[in-house]
Amino acid sequence: GNSVTQMEGPVTLSEEAFLTINCTYTATGYPSLFWYVQYPGEGLQLLLKATKADDKGSNKGFEATYRKETTSFHLEKGSVQVSDSAVYFCALSDRSGRRALTFGSGTRLQVQP
Amino acid sequence: NAGVTQTPKFQVLKTGQSMTLQCAQDMNHNSMYWYRQDPGMGLRLIYYSASEGTTDKGEVPNGYNVSRLNKREFSLRLESAAPSQTSVYFCASSEDVGSNYGYTFGSGTRLTVV
Fold first, then answer.
1. Chain A contact for B99 (CB, 8 A cutoff)
2. What value, to the nearest 5°, has the Cα angle with vertex A40 and ends A38 and A46?
């Protein structure tokens, strides 16, 4: 079946540091890939997505590239801010259209001033 | 504001009590979902409804029932609550199950079973 593996957190960084959160997946075919963000006390919000190999999704300074050869979709940001503190979830969508989104376990990011 | 609305936001139940979590979306989406979120386990799918009139089990359906009342509403029922059902419950919707536009989530219901 489909699965998503994320690096365990929490990830603690100082403001303006470089961020990488690793995400790898297992799926049949070529799924669509997503990053969601959850701020404290809120629901999940779509951060970015990529629907085919080599696509780069980007939003709010965050980027992730769909790497078919390594089955990865790592999230990066060049300079994090305190306001980026949240839990980040990697997810995949099965192209069969018969299965709902599969989520990773989430990675908590804490950015210190 | 357009989106997914969940009620209630918080609930405390005693073991054995029943309750229904309500969810409504106003985006004319075909598909709706119920997930639970537990520490260290991410989101796990309980049930989903690919379209009005259909429902399917997800990864953790035991102890739950759902009703797709119409295209807008998808409710989750706990018939006899257990402490293991203490969790945060999220409803979501999308154009269809395999949508490349992703899912829109509600703000969640925090349920405690004592």
1. yes
2. 15
